Amino acid sequence: MRTTARVTVPIVLVVAISLFLQGHNLPGGGFIGGVLTTAAFVLIYVAHDLDYLESGVLGREVEPGTSIFENRTVTAYRRVFLAGLVVVLGSGVAGIVVGDPFLTQGYVHLEGIPIYHEVELASALVFDLGVYLVVVGSLLTIVSVVSAE
Amino acid sequence: MAPDLTLVTTAVALPFVAAALTPLLYRILGERTGYAGAAVAAASFGLLATGINSYGTVGVPWVPALDVGVQFTVDGWGLLFALLASGIGVLVFVYSAEYMHGEEGLARYYAALLAFMGSILGVALASDLVLVFLFWELTSLCSFVLIGHHTEDGESRRSARMAMVVTVGGGLCLLGGLLMLAVAARGPLGGVTFDLTAMIANDEAMRAALRESGLFVPALGLIVAAAAAKSAQVPLHFWLPNAMVAPTPVSAFLHSATMVKVGVYFLGRVRPLLMSPEWVSLVATLGLLTMAVGALLAVAATDTKELLAYSTASHLGLMVAGFGFDIVYGGEAGAFHLLNHALFKAPLFLVAGIVVHEAGTRNLDNLGGLWRELPVTAAVTVVAALSMAGVPPFNGFYSKELLFEAAYEVAHEAGGVAWLYPVVATLASVLTVVYSLKFLALFFGERRAPVADVHRPPIALVVPPAVLALAAAVVSVAPQLAVDAIVQGAVDATATGEARLEVGLPTHLSPPVAMSAVALLGGFVAYPLRGRLAAGIERGVDAPVPVRPSGWYDWTVSTAEVTGARFGSVIHNGLLRTYMGWVAAAGSLLALAGFAVAGGPLETGGIGVPLSVAVVLGVATLAGVAVATASSHVAGVLTLSILGFMFAIFFILASAPDLALTQLVVETLILLIFLLVLQRLPSFYSEVRPLAIARDAGVSLLVGAMAFVSVLLTIPAPDADPTSVATYYTEQAVPGGGGTNVVNVILVDFRAFDTLGELLVVAIAAIAILVLVTMRTRGEASGAEDAAESVPDGGDSP
Question: Are B265 and B212 in contact (CB under 8 A)?
């Protein structure tokens, strides 16, 4: 199980991010990307345990026995979904600053960039990033808190 | 000259802003926050007073699609009410600063008081029905907080709840009535609109439209019911005396100038719109009945504030009755008495507060001869109480005389039963004189035993009532001055035709003057008999429940509680599956009932299924059966995911790759979560009772039927053209959103607001689960662990 997780999790994460990025033009988007990312994290939990991310991946010391609510990973997840909400609202408010109604989205085409040649920058991507963050943050908060019970 | 929108909006918004800042202010100023509140009220008053000569309507659109706007109308009527509220607000804040000395929860108190004043200003000036309704409900909400100020006192909580239930119930009636008006405006005003000013300007056409659609009487009934609930009219008068548990400044503010006047104010506002024979018989009768009942109960009262509360109900009845009469004098009586009542009732409440503060009791039987210790207060009371009694030449006399004239004229014209109007009005006035004298007796006559020593009140307590009494005295001496300043404007706004208000002392004997004389003489004669009168009224009040409105209230509340408790244990028994069962069954039943009512024909023909889809769906069905019959959780979970993946394939076949992807990842995630919890679940199901199986099968069938019918009814025919919405999205995705994935463009661009809402739901779900789990541990944990939990989160990075 752990071996499988070691191989699959990076692949899943990359797929998730690519799904998120291509979302505007091909199947995908913030929600799907977010859920898939969550799935990758949950896979790690199933294979290892809640503290593995901290001790195994980042190589930090984990104090055993602390309550789940002070667990640093969980705190981080909470921050992620808060940040997501801020991004979403911020992208909405940004439109107001420019003079459009709340949540108006725009886009620009950038051409002549190396490798990609043409990149489309849509402000909706920022909104979608917020969606992604909220989904990842909330789902992981839920999963880790519930699984710790 | 049209009023300045910024000015009006600032005047209304200022108290709300101040209310939001109050906790901060309180931290800096402490108990002196009251003076800051007074400054805010004075600022609003000043802003409004500058607009005294510029009547008109201003506003900006808010929801243009429904023609809802942030729209204010400044006219005499609204301005009179707004100036009274903010002016008395200044005095109440000054008084509070002293009176509430050393009380708990002052930040909340001042915030609520400020917000309350702001909502009253809003009601007074708003001319958009939606805005009126919002402010109307805000007043109920703030008064709930204010009446329930002593949160640890059960009586206080009960009274606050009662005021809330009655006035918010009235608010619902108002909403119904306003919606009817808005719908009826479709014809005469060319579209659904909430613009009250426009409705009043076209009152003939509005009435005709309302009558045509049969909504006239319901709308009238609902609006009058709302006003009656707010203005404590019989039979909804019982909440007002109970609301006296509030701190005295609140009582003075709520019951002299603001809360209870809202109903009267709105009746005056819609009077030109709804004037009709039905209006007269309903509103005038209601008002006079309340006037009499309130006066009766006030005579029987033994508590100073209770007496004033019932007297308030009685005087509100006078105003309502005035507005009820289809005659010039009626509107004049209502509008003028609004001012007069505020000017004499507010000081009386404040005086009652001083008496409690200094003598320590509110019991009328224990108080007397206080003029020796409280000379200024006594002088204030003399002016205010004689005005309340309607003794000439005090200001209360003029407006009461106008009501007598109106009642007499109406009776003279109609004859017959209508003669009851002047008779009841006179009778109520006799009682008014009796209870006014009874209140005045606090200060005169012999000292009564139990009150030991009475202190001199602080200056901040005496000044506000003195200022008001002075204003009352000015209006008494020169009533025409007040009329010219503002009351004429108020009369114009509430009159159905031309009205020129002339007031002054009567110069010759006319029937209304005779009525006044009878009332005064009767009052003075009946005053010595008040003990016997009170005993008689007490006996009537103790009658069995069916004739006591407060008995009905108690019965309704307790029955609701008992029924709720009984239902609660059935629906809410702590088992997740029971909740699911109720929610699913109730939701499906409602949806099916909705379809049945809508009555769309079910088209079953023309459903063709490609082979691939049929195979996928067949497998899904098999998986569904397998889930239901699975012998263990592992088998159940695995078969459930087969079902899920089959759906994903179905989505792909139906060319919905986004849905399929979502379905796939969600299914994976669910499977993983199940893996996490699987070891905690029992490995085998226990024996289930056949009855439970039957019940569950019933619920499943219901849900299935609902889903089936919904799909059948909502999907378009296979060969139908895409709907206009779909076409729009498909065409606009690239130019409008810059993306070729229509689903995603809709999610993040066209309907981003919906997505935002969904995100909030996700976030709330996460927070809710966090809280649930935290609470659970807290419930189980000991105090030591609680302390550990309150340690701030350590470590910022994962």
Answer: no
How do strand A117-122 and strand B68-74 relate by DSSP bridges? unpaired
Pick the most confident of A107-121, B415-429, B757-771: B415-429
In this structure, are residues A131 and A30 in contact, taking their beta carbons and an 8 Å threshold?
yes
What is the identity of the amino acid at B330? G
CA–CA gap between residue B84 and residue B45 (Å, rounded): 9
Chain A touched by B788 (CB under 8 Å): yes
Residues of B in contact with A138 (CB under 8 A): 762-763, 765-766
Q: What are residue B666's DSSP bridge partners?
A: none
Q: Which of B328, B67, B277, B72 is nearest to B181 (CA)?
A: B67
Summarised one tens digit per residue, pLDDT across range B617-636 is 888 888 888 887 777 777 78
Chain A residues within an 8 Å CB radius of B665: 32, 35-36, 39
Domain count of the fold of chain B:
1
**B340 in Cβ contact with B396 (< 8 Å):** yes
pLDDT bucket at B786, cuts 50 / 70 / 90: very low
Residues from chain B that touch A135, judged by Cβ atoms under 8 A, are: 759, 762
Pairing of strands A107-113, B56-63: unpaired
- C-alpha B275/C-alpha B195 separation (Å) is 18
| Domain extent listing, chain A | 2-148
- Chain A contact set for B747 (CB, 8 A): 29-31, 131
Q: Is residue B360 part of a domain?
A: yes
Burial class (CB in 10 A: 0-12, 13-18, 19+), B485: middle
Q: Could you tell me if residue B574 is left (phi over 0), alpha (psi between -120 and 50 degrees) or otherwise beta?
A: left
Contact B131, B78 (CB under 8 A): no
User: Is B583 inside a domain boundary?
Assistant: no
Going B21 to B25 to B27 to B32, the CA torsion angle's sign is negative
Residues in contact with B650: Cβ distance below 8 Å, sequence separation at least 6, in sequence order: B613, B616, B617, B620
Residue B301 lies in domain: 275-541
Could A107 and B737 be called an inter-chain contact, meaning their C-beta atoms sit closer than 8 Å? yes
**Distance in angstroms (rounded) separating the CA atoms of residues B626 and B718:** 31
Judge whether B115 and B259 are in contact, CB under 8 Å. no
Length of chain A: 149
- The partner residues of B706 in beta bridges, in order of sequence, read none
Q: Give the phi and the psi of residue B63 in degrees, each rounded to 5.
A: -120, 85
What is the distance between the alpha carbons of residues A144 and A70, in angstroms, rounded to a whole number?
Answer: 12
Q: Are B291 and B424 in contact (CB under 8 A)?
A: yes
Give the minimum alpha-carbon distance from A6 to chain B in angstroms, rounded to a whole number: 16
* H or E stretch at B615: helix B611-629
For residue B393, is the peptide bond before it cis, meaning its omega torsion is within 30 degrees of 0?
Answer: yes
Per residue in B394-407, pLDDT tens? 888 888 888 888 88
Query: Is the ipTM, as predicted for this complex, more than 0.85?
Result: no
* Residue position matching structure tokens 């459930």: B640
Q: Strand pairing of B68-74 and A107-113?
A: unpaired
- Nearest CB to B759; choose among A24, A120, A134: A134
pTM over 0.90: no
- pLDDT tens across B536-584, in order? 777 776 665 555 667 778 888 888 889 888 888 887 777 777 888 888 8
Cα separation, B121 vs B72, whole angstroms: 10
> Is residue B484 one of the residues assigned to a domain?
yes
Cross-chain residue pair A88–B759, CB shorter than 8 Å:
yes
The DSSP secondary-structure symbol of B373 reads: T
Does any domain span residue B222?
A: no
Residue B550 contacts residue B238 (beta carbons within 8 Å): yes
Instruction: Please report the number of interchain residue pairs, chain A to chain B, with beta-carbon separation below 8 angstroms.
Output: 170
Residue B32 is classified by DSSP as G
**DSSP string of A9-56, one letter each residue:** HHHHHHHHHHHHHHTTTSS--HHHHHHHHHHHHHHHHHHS-TTHIIII
